[in-house]
Amino acid sequence: MKTNTLHKWSKILLIILGISLVVAIFVPIWSIFLNAPQYPEGLAMYIHADKVSGEYEIINGLNHYIGMKEIHADEFWEFKILPYALAFFAAMCFLAAFVNSRKILYVLTGIFLLFGVGFVFDFWRWLYDYGHNLNPHAAIIVPGMTYQPPLIGYKQLLNFEVWSYPNVGGAIMIATGVILIILAFMEFKRAKKAV
């Protein structure tokens, strides 16, 4: 038995992960949903790999009053590289499966986890910047108040209820990380038994 080859189910799961990561390029990754008495139907903003969609123009108008910067997709360098990063990880999944290499799986898992940590930190930093760096000449100023939306979960911001949570693309990325860890661990145990 070759000690560097993958189990059949590992290869199948890697192919599924590769396809899923390609899908993640084209669907929303994260959702931010706002609800207030004057907007009972709510306002939604969706963050994709390469753009922002939803009612973010209305949200920009509301944020103007409290001094938050406007959200414009062309200001984010992340949108220029994220589709390529997801495509790269999809290609790595396919490569590990078709080359049948445990080493590539290990490398892929490590790089993807570093990417995931970096992605979450960068998103938190983006939310922090928008919620804290306010225009001091805004129409509405509440001393000591910041407006950073939650990274994940719920937060009350003035009269707005704000929810932030993974959308389809984010769920794919989280599931990919978890499955890669499990596969790498199982393959490591399998390699130990084969020695």
- Order of helical and strand elements: HEEEHHHEEH
Instruction: Outline the biggest β-sheet.
Output: 5 strands, antiparallel
DSSP, total strands? 5
CA radius of gyration is: 21 Å
CATH fold assignment: Butyryl-CoA Dehydrogenase, subunit A, domain 3
Characterization of this structure:
The protein has 195 residues and is of the alpha+beta class. It has a single domain, classed as Up-down Bundle (Butyryl-CoA Dehydrogenase, subunit A, domain 3). Helices cover 55% and strands 16% of the residues. The protein contains 5 helices and 5 strands; from the N terminus they run αβββαααββα. The chain has a 5-stranded antiparallel sheet with strand order 3-2-1-5-4. Strand 1 (30-36) and strand 2 (39-47) form a beta hairpin. The longest helix has 31 residues, at 102-132. The chain is elongated and about 70 Å long. 23% of the residues are buried.
Entry keywords:
alpha+beta; Butyryl-CoA Dehydrogenase, subunit A, domain 3; 5 helices; elongated
